[in-house]
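Hi again,

Forgot to attach this to my earlier email, sorry! This is the prediction with 2-oxoadipic acid bound. I've pasted everything inline since the attachment limit keeps bouncing my files.
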Amino acid sequence: MPIDHSFWARYLLDGVDQRREVTAITAQVDELSIDDAYAIQAALLELQLGRGDTLAGAKLGLTSAAKQQQMGVNEPVYGWLPASSVLWDGYVDLSGLIHPRCEPEIVFVLAEDLAGPGVRAGDVLDATDTVVGGIEIIDSRYEAFSFTLPDVIADNTSAARVAVGAVGIGPRDVDLKTMGCEFEIDGEVTGTATGAALLGDPAACVAMLANHLGKHGQKLRAGWLVLAGAATDAQPLNDGTVATARYDHLGPVTITGKV
Ligand code: OOG
Ligand code: MG
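Structure tokens for the complex follow:
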């Protein structure tokens, strides 16, 4: 049977709206190809845009060994950032989320469009206005935060919120590969990494995303935020949890979960 993309998009959005976990799609269909998974993701975005949301950017996920091991999925994934998901640092309202986790992100703020194919890391730096620190709040809609590769793609790569730091730096004023990041939960360090943990180079990750979108006739746009993926494990974000990502050169970004 062909996969009904709008049906599964609605199924996932119902999970968000009703704030409940849903059973993985792959547990319910014979086969879910990667193309079908991205088609469900696109249908989900259409539903969100139909409600008046706009696009603020795009993201990569599962670009580090830490995250791939944590989630048991060994390939990078790509998703969208609706404008309604973007926050500044501070309190994160948990009342609309299912079982949120948080993770440190390097955020590229684009000055120019980036269209694949053939985009390389240097092109990403040329097209970037600033790089800022951030913390992504992921919230898989699936039971037990557990999924296969096509499931997580369909679910817009668990994207829920992103808190963006205030301090930016020019993309060539810092070596993103050696830039360090420490992730702290309630004052305890849970992970440390450098930018190179993201497939060797965070800018190369963004290039991959631009090239992926190019295959679908899409591009990264000037003004967008682009997340390169978390370099450390994600941690639960509960009521009162204080999470801080400390980046060399960028300073800290802190969020506090609040019901
Ligand atoms: C999938 C999203 C992964 C990242 O930065 O690796 C991601 C998940 O872990 O639920 O956003
Ligand atoms: Mg992430």
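The first strand starts at residue 55 and ends at 61. The chain has a mean pLDDT of 97.

That should be everything now.

G.
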